[in-house]
Amino acid sequence: MSTLSGSVTLGEAVSVSGQAEGFAAGVTGGGSSEPQYTSNINKSSLLITATWYTAALKALEVASNKTIISVGESGVIKGKGLSFTNGASNIIIQNIQIDHITTARTGRQHHIFGFQTNTRVTLSNNYIDGDTPYSTGCDRYTYWIFKIEGFDDQITLQNNYIYKTSGRSPALSSSTLLHTVNNIWYLNNGHALEGGNTIIRDYNSRLFDTPDLSTADDCECALSRTCEVNILTGSGSLTSYTNTSFFSDFSDLTIAPATSASKAEKNVPNNAGISKL
Q1: Domain interval for residue 142
Q2: Whole-angstrom Cα distance, residue 260 to residue 91?
Q3: 3-state SS string over 120-138?
Q4: 128/126 Cα distance (integer angstroms)
Q5: What is the pLDDT of residue 134?
Q6: Nearest to 239 by CA among 206, 214, 209
Q7: Are 177 and 233 in contact (CB under 8 A)?
Q8: Does residue 45 belong to any structural domain of this protein?
Q9: Which residues of the chain have a pLDDT value below 70?
Q10: Could you give the number of structural domains in the chain?
Q11: What is the rounded distance in angstroms from the CA atom of residue 99 to the CA atom of residue 273?
């Protein structure tokens, strides 16, 4: 048995901080619904407790039009994950759009997107802590962080700090449109990206394929902003990609803004994760 607990001073505002950028722009979650919180564990135990098998055989299902927010550093879900299935949509998970959360000590796969299509998804400002005693290589590095395999997925990864991983961070398959903006991969002792030649991607302001400055005009036309040049350190040489035909796939989608890679390198590790709102 695990207990999920937290305290809120009566009258204290509990609301979403900021707005989703990228493909999930416009998500409202629970909107103006009255927050459900507790001041007395004896009267409101159903709101803050849950029981499950130690092995976590099933995830906690989250239905549509929901907002889940923790207060401060008290919002910890231990031994269990959240699941959004059966067409669930318009969900905000914040400080425990999926924004400002910290995931840690998993055996594998911090975030999984299944075979069905997952659209208008943004994972932002999250701390993906790969330091784990349960690593497949017995080296405390998590293998396989993001499993992304839906058909025609549309996913934005923005301002995430991805720490101590050994591969598949992410692993892509099918025809995913993945837009990675201002993410930091640090202490990766394996391969950060896995996927085939059919994967569509635009790695802005980060590590993988550094855009040439001459492509700025193409970015401005497709994304309504210039592409920032990536920073890559401690890696072998990478193939230079010059095909920009995938830009058309960004039509009618909301594009996340980007800062310079040097600013992201300084700011993202200090602002990602729980209690950093």
Answers
A1: 63-271
A2: 29
A3: CEEEECCEEECECCCCCCC
A4: 6
A5: 82
A6: 209
A7: no
A8: no
A9: 1-14, 37-56, 95-96, 107, 196-216, 237-243
A10: 1
A11: 8
Kindly state whether residue 8 falls inside one of the protein's structural domains: no
User: Cα(187)–Cα(140) distance, rounded to whole angstroms?
Assistant: 11
Three-state secondary structure call for residue 268:
helix
CA dist., res. 103 & res. 111, Å (int): 9
CATH number at residue 250: 2.160.20.10
The upper half-sphere exposure of residue 51, i.e. CA atoms within 13 Å in the direction of its Cβ, equals: 2
Cβ-proximal residues to 86 (8 Å cutoff; 6+ apart), any chain: none
CB contact at 8 A, 147 and 174: no
pLDDT of residue 4: 31
Report yes or no on 218 lying in a domain: yes
Q: Are strands 91-94 and 146-148 parallel, antiparallel or unpaired?
A: unpaired
Q: Which residues are catalytic?
A: 168
Residue type, 106: T
Predicted TM-score of the model (pTM): 0.78
Question: Is 126 among the domain residues?
Answer: yes
Predicted pLDDT of residue 140: 92
- Rounded to an integer, what distance in angstroms lies between the CA atom of residue 199 and that of residue 243? 12
Q: Say which DSSP state 235 is in.
A: -
Cα-based angle 225, 231, 232 (whole degrees, multiple of 5): 140
- Identify the H or E element spanning 221: helix 216-223
